[in-house]
Amino acid sequence: MTEQTPVLRLENIVKTFPGVRALDGVSFTVLPGEVHALMGENGAGKSTLMNVLGGIYQPDEGQIIVSEQPAVMTSPLEAKARGIMFIHQELSLAEELSVAENVYLGELPKKRFGLVDWDTLYARTDAILERLKVGFDARTRVGDLSIANQQMVEIARALTVDAKAVIFDEPTASLTDAEKVVLFEVIADLQRDGVGIIYISHRMEEIFKITDRISVLRDGSYRGTLHTRDTDEEAVTQLMIGRKLDLSRSESTHELGDVALEVRGLSCGHLFEDVSFHVRRGEVLGFYGLVGAGRTEIAETLFGLRDPSAGTILLDGQEIRIHSPVDAIERGISLVPEDRKGQGLVLGMNCRDNMTLPQVSDLTAGPFVSDGAEVAIFDQYRDKLDIRTPGWRQLVGNLSGGNQQKIVIGKWLSMHPNVLIVDEPTRGIDVGSKSEIHNLIRELAAQGYAVIVISSEMPEVLRVSDRIVAMYSGRVMRTFTSDDVTEDNLIQAISGLGDGAAA
Amino acid sequence: MSGLTKQNIGSFLARQGILVAFALFMIGFTLANGRFLDPDNVMGVVRSSAILGVMALGVTFVVISGNLDLSVGSMMSFSTIVVLDLHDKIGPTLAIPAMFALTLCLGALIGFLVGYLKLNSLIVTLGMLSAIHGLTLTWSGGKNMDIADKEATWFGIFGQGEIIGIPVPILIFALLASVLGLILAKTPFGRKVYAVGGNGTAATFSGIRRARVVFSCYLMSSFCVATAGLIQASRSMGSQNTVGQGLELEVLAAVILGGASLLGGSGTIFKTVIGVLILGFIQNGLLLVGLQFYVQYVVTWVIIILAVWLDIAAKRGKLWSPIA
């Protein structure tokens, strides 16, 4: 591999923003046919580097070399013309248009009088789709496709030109395990065609599965490149966060308390049916299943966002009815939602105001909100949860994902809930903060909170839960205790293979 | 310290553009006409801005909660006509509360449609603009409304009176601005308005009754409109059916000029007051330099466009950007 001409070389890239040295002399090289992982915590400079490469930012120093030709990326179009293609984490597709129109958006083939040449368009697109082995054709409306298939459309875009390097930014964030397999095949195909691939992801198991080399950024500077074969997760993590991770599972040594929440035969249309479980004080109950298995919907029902069609909910042995989040909060049921930015936080508000939002009506002195009471709560939970922010006036939108999540958790802890439901606690959060959140959840249980954790990541549920409810297609398949759970039987249960009889 | 590069100037203009533009206008007008900064003229501007200002205070709540209110102009005509008509029928003491009650009903209706039924506020209030105009004309039969005996009533005090030398409309504006300013900045309700406008879903997930907040904002807006209608009616003692026509855009211009985002979640009462004054001084300045009154309509439009442009420019810190 050493003899090959690199498809892409970054030399000593420096980019500063007012007050921040976002990239501090970053260099790395992508060879043809290699999958090169780019890793780093949120804020390490990955996005900035990719924006420099994509022509959105101009570097202050250093240069980009594509196939031994120095290149100045003046715009995203320039990058594309040089064969550098991006597949973004956030899909940027026009839902109302067809797959073909999306793939060739901006450069639709034309006939006389500037009319679109539909035949050519569909033929070309179908040819690309065939390479991707997808089950839809060029005429399909993008809005009708699943998220995974929409991702495939993004990838198809990258194949319209003779790509030299393709950058995948967190491509598996919204994919199921089966869909990932297809994605990895596509990547392998590109590899065989001699395309260089930059793969950005937080997920270690993927990195070790498909990449050849791993380059790590920390605080805007380049920390080294490792050969995937010769290294392990621990070494990469240490390079990324500059210290070792505490991965030990804190076994619950404390006594479990009474049953805080019990659910009997709960159904909500076809979203989930006949679901029963209970959670004790001091216990973490994990919910594991595929996307669409009905886990989030259960949480939303407990939080009063959906009305159940059957079944009962008991809080401390008393049957309760919950018709709105207001009801749920009054009874001490709290939800840290799945979509942190969309549902959990008002990004344009400061840290303190976000944290005290649910109880702002109670924090009054006379008719006005009491500044002192609010700041006191914020300070207490900032210290307790180790939230890193310059001060409470900081807008939440400026915090890292991990700190944002802690604000949401603090928001509910400060209300002293009976039951804390955490949906996808570490989605989009970097490795270092991830383990902090995991430890935090364990600690909360130790302090006597009843915690429900919903997660799509197996290592996560295994690590934080005392018991795990496995769901498949709206039904509880089996409830595992930490003694009888293994990765295998858990996977079987959530795939609908190992049914309840096994329990 | 970084020097004055082109980029820095651009970024400064993007952030403080409104104030810079306002300062330039003021300097220009002062140079063009010495009377511009005359205390009488300044007082006159504030006084004539009071009606617009009172309406803008209410609309500020609506805009921060993430909605629009295009019905305030036509609603103000309604309030004015109703209070003038009732004045001669049931006397001012009853006419004023009756007018407030009727106007609040209109606000409640809009609040119900936008808040509880979650209909798009642009469509609802645009429809109400026309519907309320029809209501006003039906009430008046299309005729102008006048108080028969203008000498015998104390009704003129709200529009023409003075207390310790300060015109009452200015006092009402100042009082209302202080009270509403405190409500928005300091009370739990105010905080909820920001939360609902900033991210309505997150507000719901935090146990805030979003519909109730939106409803209350429209109720406050209609209260402000009723107050503005009272000042208007009291000042002129008679009115056409179209007295408030077009004011909805000027009100919106003032609110945006003050820096409230049309997307909701940001803005303050203080900034709206600044926006109202900027608009008032610019319109006055245009008259003083001898331009026709009608030029104002065009200039108001230019100001709105400028304000909206600078609003997004401030968010991205650049005057122009290839990506949103």
Automatic annotation (TrEMBL), chain A:
Keyword Iron-sulfur among record annotations: no
Keywords recorded for this protein, A-Z: ATP-binding, Cell membrane, Membrane, Nucleotide-binding, Repeat, Sugar transport, Translocase, Transport
Membrane topology summary: Peripheral membrane protein
Cellular component GO terms, alphabetical: plasma membrane
Gene Ontology molecular function: any one: ATP hydrolysis activity
Gene3D superfamilies associated with the record: P-loop containing nucleotide triphosphate hydrolases (3.40.50.300)
CDD domains per UniProt: ABC_Carb_Monos_I, ABC_Carb_Monos_II
Main location: membrane
Subcellular location: Cell membrane
Keyword Ribonucleoprotein: no
SUPFAM superfamilies: P-loop containing nucleoside triphosphate hydrolases
Protein name: Sugar ABC transporter ATP-binding protein
UniProtKB/TrEMBL annotation, chain B:
GO MF annotation, one: transmembrane transporter activity
Gene Ontology terms: cellular component: plasma membrane
Subcellular locations according to the entry: Cell membrane
Membrane topology listed for this record: Multi-pass membrane protein
Coiled-coil annotated spans: none
Transmembrane segment boundaries: 12-32, 44-64, 94-116, 122-142, 163-185, 213-231, 251-282, 294-314
Alphabetized UniProt keyword annotations: Cell inner membrane, Cell membrane, Membrane, Transmembrane, Transmembrane helix, Transport
Domain of life of the organism encoding this protein: Bacteria
Protein name as it appears in the record: ABC transporter permease
Lineage: Bacteria, Pseudomonadati, Pseudomonadota, Alphaproteobacteria, Rhodobacterales
